[in-house]
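Sorry to interrupt, but I need a hand with the structure work. Leave the record below and I will have a look:
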Amino acid sequence: MFVWYNMIMKLLTRVAITALALLLVAKLSIGVDIDGLYGALIAAVVLGVLNTLVRPLLVILTLPITILTLGLFILVINAGLFYFAASFVDGFTVDSFLASVIGSVLVSIISSIGNRFVA
């Protein structure tokens, strides 16, 4: 029972950190907009599901081009998933693909730092 509690709390903490990272990136006005905390939480959950289920498949399918670009194509995959998540969530908008690239990189960096301090 205690193991499940720890797993659930770790998952909720990661979602909250990602939501806060999304809110912080939206405040930088780079083309990423979020209407509020509820939208950020839903966007964090959608991003988590996409990164868990779709990203590994995309990485495997695009492995040759990823090798040719020395791994830089992973940025395109992350930005595409970020842009795709914005199409699902009301209140989460991304203006352009460049804003998606910058936003996904910043969210990754901020959430990585936040998860390192918490975990």
